[in-house]
Each structure stands twice: as structure tokens, then as C-alpha cells.
Design brief:
A hairpin with a 4-residue loop joins β6 and β7 (186-190). The chain is 29% helix and 11% strand. Strands 3-4-5-6-7 form a 5-stranded antiparallel β-sheet, with helices on both faces. The protein is built from 6 helices and 7 strands; from the N terminus they run ααααββαβββββα. It has a domain at 117-216: DD-peptidase/beta-lactamase superfamily (Beta-lactamase, 3-Layer(aba) Sandwich), CATH 3.40.710.10. The protein is of the alpha+beta class and 216 residues long.
Amino acid sequence: MSTDVLGRIVEVVSGMPLDRFFEERITKPLGMHDTGFYLTPAQAPRLAQLQVDPTTGRRPSASTLENLTKEKQRWFSGGGGLLSTGLDYARFCQMLLNGGELDGVRFLSPRTVAIMTSDQLPPGIPRIAFPFIEDVDPSPAFGQSFGLGFLVRTHLGPNPLPGSPGDFAWGGVYGTVFWVDPKEKLFAVMMIQMPFTQLGHYRRILSELVYGALVE
């Protein structure tokens, strides 16, 4: 909810709706032409559908996604709701990996990126009990905390996901996952449409494949 409040603050300070602010200040300068809060008629047929649930043999309902093809929203969430493609999101991750710059255009200062991707939680924060997504639990028990918009890895710890101290990540409710590892100079993006509670298996497989392919 804090990020939703931040989205509204951006609207007030900038004097423009959040969708327009994102387009003018982030997605258009970054060349993310397939990223936005809603779909154009030309984009609508390309919307990926949710995967069939193997336990029921049925495709879960995605009414929220379907509504994005019918009308433009009246309220834009600072905490979620963007649609994108793997190529677009790769540009966003590359910008972060570069310390806030891409193709000669600077979006953030290196110091700002460093602050955003540093541990921002005070000591003594109780663990968030998410039994189906423990690998993204911002808990010291998993060597993780939270920065300004990112899950951040503070130390290796007994985490089921491989990675490096200083890497940062987050994901979307329908399966988007990304992480940036500055130490290894890499980022990864996974686009998959499925309920978030079923995503852990695929998130762990992708992580193991990426880091298992690295050699000294």
C-alpha cells in the first residue's frame, strides 16, 4: 500500500496522471513501447493467458487482465498493474544494472540506485509468514531485507535461491519475476502467466539454471 500512496504523491507533485507520468518520464525515454497500464486495440490480441492449473485442468479466471482490454482505468496503482513484454522489461533491468543509465540517457543517479537497493528496514521487523513464497521473504533468516521498491539480498544465508549479496528483485501477481545481480553483472526476467502462489517452482528453476551456467 505504501507504493500506491507514493504513486498518488507522484501525481500530485507532477500534476499529471500516473500513466502519463510513467510514459513521459520512464517508458518512452527507455524505449519501452509495449509497457503501460492498459492495452491498445492492436496490443489486446497479444495478451498472454493464464496457464492451465494442473490440479484442476482449468484455466484460472483473469478478469483483471481481461478488463484491461476493454477500457482505460480511472485509477492507476503505484504498486502494480503495468503490462509489459520481456524485451521491454529487459531494458528497464539493464538501466538499473548500469546504475540508472541506458543508451546515453540517465534516469537515476548511481547513488540513488544504491540507496534504493540497500536494506531500508530497521532491526526487529517480524518475519512475514508466506509459506508458499519463502524465497522472497524479506527476512534475515533468508539473508534478505527490503529496499525502496526491491527485495534485497543482504547476505547469502540459508536461501533456497542462489544469488549474491547486493542483488535485488521483485515480481508481479500474475508471474512476472526479475532480479538484478550487480556482482555478476547480470539480470534475468521471467514472464509467465499463472497465480503467484504457484510460481515458486518456476522461479527456483530459472534461478538455478542462470547461476548454474556461470563459470569463473
